[in-house]
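The following block was generated as part of the benchmark described in Methods. Ligand: adenosine-5'-diphosphate.
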Amino acid sequence: MELTITELSKSYPNGVQALDHVSLRIGRGMYGLLGPNGAGKSTLMRILATLLEPDSGQARLGDTDMLREKDSVRRLLGYLPQDFGVYPKVSAQEMLDHLALLKGITRTTERKQVVEALLERVNLQDQRKKALAGFSGGMRQRFGIAQALIGDPKLIIVDEPTAGLDPGERNRFYNLLSEIGENVIVILSTHIVEDVKELCPNMAILHQGRLRYAGPTADGIASIQGRIWQRSIDKGLVNDYEQRHRVISSKLIAGRPLIHVYSDTDPGDGFTAVEPDLEDLFFSTIHGVREC
Ligand code: ADP
């Protein structure tokens, strides 16, 4: 099954154009939707999750028209929103049971089996009786995935799922997502470059409502091969270098800024060539220095 998005546009009443003619084709596996805050990612995810109407454009999941056949989409979809809302004092098991009932699993014995299997899948079987309100960030996100998996969805959307997780929790969450991504379409929407780097063989970069890259992650990185240069500079000189070069990023390494610049040819000035990575692709894309 393939997800095909064609020329989707959406403006909010305040005049912000959150999506501007976005087209994408997404097949099975983990797909990264990367963009800075405000890029339009949640808007796109909410449209696909049938929670928001676009102004124009189309979206199809296999044979299903996602913008018209909303009931069918809801049966095919699992959604982990950015803000999962209030975590009540009920246990993980009770909550999953309740959500499974809402998703139409009405037979008690079947529901019990589904809930058991889901708790095991996300490794929360030992916490099944614990109130959700007392869950850590990582446990919450694993619970969020469990609820998204109810009803065997073909498309799973996770919006900013690793924000706020510590490195251990993040790794556990990565493993869980990549297992799930073997069989269905998983769209991982995030501003965290590392999430996409670790998990997604295919990806898109969204910025200011426009698609700036879509394709294999490795091809995007290959497209800037030989064009990224770095140098460590004195703290007070960042502005100076920004005047003379196309600086795409600057990070402090042991208290000194290490800057990366984009240049088709050797910029001189003490720079050395560096093997580009996804961060370089992301920053050169959103700074508009890479040819799209
Ligand atoms: P992201 O998920 O990439 O951070 P969003 O889709 O949340 O981006 O937002 C895209 C743009 O639309 C931003 O400029 C944001 O301020 C604006 N926006 C989002 N939701 C609304 C809304 N309900 N009303 C008005 N503007 C909104």
